[in-house]
Amino acid sequence: MERKNKSQQKREALAIQDLGKRLVGLSSDQLRQLSLPQDILDAVEEAQRIRSHEAKRRQILFIASLMRNVDVEPINQALTNLLSGKIEGTRLFHKLEHWRDCLLDGQDDILDQICKEFPEADRQQIGQLTRNARKEAALDKPRKSARALFRALRDLAEKPSGKN
Predict the structure, then answer these.
(1) In this structure, what DSSP letter does residue 70 have?
(2) With a threshold of 0.70, does the pTM exceed it?
(3) Which CATH number among 2.60.120.620, 1.10.60.30, 2.40.50.840, 2.40.110.10 corresponds to the domain 89-158?
């Protein structure tokens, strides 16, 4: 077995501490998706309840000491996969917002692009929601139809047959 030098050991310890900090920043649902060992999960949940900066720092060090006893690579990989899914969701959200804004600004060629990307799209429904949203905007009414248009686009993009 190859012996690690002190610098390498320190880098690995800091990487485990950083992983612990990232775990503390996750929601309960996200933590459950990672399938962490129960002792680490309990320690992370405890750290999330702590408000004192110094106490939280010590708890993160405790989490790191627990993680030294397990293989952290699967945890790190699962966390990366979880966060990349979140990034894709954000990217999709921005794309849908852009489409909605373009439709409201009168760029009707976007509707062709939407229908091309999602053949199952109801062109009439999207067109009607767009017209209603434009009327509401012109009359300074609440943006009820604009929200409905966004929901319709989101539902369309989240269907299993959608390409995203």
Answers:
(1) S
(2) no
(3) 1.10.60.30
